[in-house]
Sequence to fold (108 residues):
Amino acid sequence: MGNEELIGKVSDLDGLISYQDGSVVSREVIRKPTGTVTLFAFDEGQGLSEHTAPFNAMVVIVDGEAEIILGGKPNHLKKGEMIIMPANVPHALNAIKRFKMLLIMIRS
Fold:
């Protein structure tokens, strides 16, 4: 299902992306000059090493459990929870259990 097919339709976030063993999978849902919305699926034990982004980014956990480290402080998130990662603050993500997340980044 392509992005155009999502417009104006009800979609199950969990069903739009699948886990892959030993991998991190992503699917861009919206890409505009002003920002992006991307779904990710992290298999257990996978993650993203510490990095920064020039804009605030909101993460919503769609399934599973994640550890999101912001400025050295660990945060444990479960399905249905969200956190806003501030611009220019180092952050990292680890899959405590396999998890899916929606990443919303507004570039302004």
